[in-house]
Amino acid sequence: MKQRTPVSDIMTKNIIALTRSDNLERAEMLFNRHKIKHMPVVSGESIIGMLSYTDLMRISFAETKEESNRSVDSVVYNLFTIEQVMIKDVFTITSETTIKEAAQILADREFHALPVVDDGTLVGIVTTTDLLYYFIKQF
User: Which residues form a coiled coil (predicted)?
Assistant: First the structure.
């Protein structure tokens, strides 16, 4: 296993992101459509927050996908904005951060995703799933 491999080798570069003007229904649709659990919230190319699927489920009364629950989710989602639900104090890494360092940060801080930012621009995201696939390839 290479000791100094940068996260740029494994990070997701095609970022699915939200803006502060998006609503929580759109967030849920993107989470489900792209089968992801974390989304950066951006203003232009800069990250201003992170939203996780878990954050979204915490404010929802119904965690099922049944059609009858859609109206309940819609009502709840309309009570909050992206900005009210997102994590604002986002811990980021650079594309040159090593995979080992990223794994250590995720483990120590109990995060599941790290936005990758170079010179103030969001360039990727590294998740625990990305790390698992990387480690699997090593064997």
Answer: none
